[in-house]
Amino acid sequence: MLKLISEAISYIKHRIGDFEPEIGIILGTGLGGLVSEIEVKHQLMYANIPNFPISTLEFHSGKLIFGELAGKKVVAMQGRLHYYEGYNMKQITFPVRVLKMLGISQLFVSNASGALNPSYRKGDLMIIEDHINLQPDNPLIGTNYDELGPRFPDMSRPYNVNLIEKACAIAKKQNTTCHTGVYVSVTGPNLETRAEYRYLRIIGGDAVGMSTVPEVIVANHMGLPVFAISVLTDEGFPETLQPVSVEEIIKVASEAEPKLTNILKELILHL
């Protein structure tokens, strides 16, 4: 693992020179538009970075974007990896380890997810304050490298409380409907049945998606503060459940993205 990370970092540093990112950003499905707000300095294709997994989804670009956003040096992952693509958890989270070793001190994560809480509506935003992990594997299984983090990392506060409070205040000031809640991570790629949506709500979920939690586990393992936010793209309410397509999900995410972008920009500005 350490050798693989070192090879990726060596390649990246050779191409970005003395650029040192402070903040890492992972952009979820339909949420790549934030890149247009970044003053881009360098772009690297995942396919060209040693040991980097390649996004197999047509709506995920698969680029590392280095530049400036709200006065801060950032690196954005335009396209993330998912378990349902066939990657293992170490591959999915490999980019987070690389970003941390490149020097980022905070990680911002976005995703598209389905609403479970009946008081939420599609198009709303939800800041993740905690999660339930229903993925069948864990990125920390196997050999632990003390250089990366402890064998048994604490997960009592996986999402940074200070960043959550700041983001909630920003959303209120911007008159944006933004909830705080619990995110449930499942494998996908199928969406859930009525019974599954009912179960996920019963166990405490406010939203459900197919990503984020493995990345957050690894970020916590490496001592990296995390802020995560979801765009609620569909409604998983068993009594009124309607069929939904990926195209519809991407459309709702794209329409809601300006609200998410405005919150992230101001949050980064005031770090």
UniProtKB/TrEMBL annotation:
<feature type="domain" description="Nucleoside phosphorylase">
    <location>
        <begin position="23"/>
        <end position="268"/>
    </location>
</feature>
<keyword id="KW-0808">Transferase</keyword>
<comment type="similarity">
    <text>Belongs to the PNP/MTAP phosphorylase family.</text>
</comment>
<comment type="function">
    <text>The purine nucleoside phosphorylases catalyze the phosphorolytic breakdown of the N-glycosidic bond in the beta-(deoxy)ribonucleoside molecules, with the formation of the corresponding free purine bases and pentose-1-phosphate.</text>
</comment>
<dbReference type="GO" id="GO:0009116">
    <property type="term" value="P:nucleoside metabolic process"/>
</dbReference>
<comment type="pathway">
    <text>Purine metabolism; purine nucleoside salvage.</text>
</comment>
<keyword id="KW-0328">Glycosyltransferase</keyword>
<dbReference type="InterPro" id="IPR035994">
    <property type="entry name" value="Nucleoside_phosphorylase_sf"/>
</dbReference>
<protein>
    <recommendedName>
        <fullName>Purine nucleoside phosphorylase</fullName>
        <ecNumber>2.4.2.1</ecNumber>
    </recommendedName>
</protein>
<dbReference type="Pfam" id="PF01048">
    <property type="entry name" value="PNP_UDP_1"/>
</dbReference>
<keyword id="KW-0597">Phosphoprotein</keyword>
<dbReference type="GO" id="GO:0004731">
    <property type="term" value="F:purine-nucleoside phosphorylase activity"/>
</dbReference>
<dbReference type="InterPro" id="IPR011268">
    <property type="entry name" value="Purine_phosphorylase"/>
</dbReference>
<dbReference type="InterPro" id="IPR000845">
    <property type="entry name" value="Nucleoside_phosphorylase_d"/>
</dbReference>
<dbReference type="GO" id="GO:0005737">
    <property type="term" value="C:cytoplasm"/>
</dbReference>
<dbReference type="InterPro" id="IPR011270">
    <property type="entry name" value="Pur_Nuc_Pase_Ino/Guo-sp"/>
</dbReference>
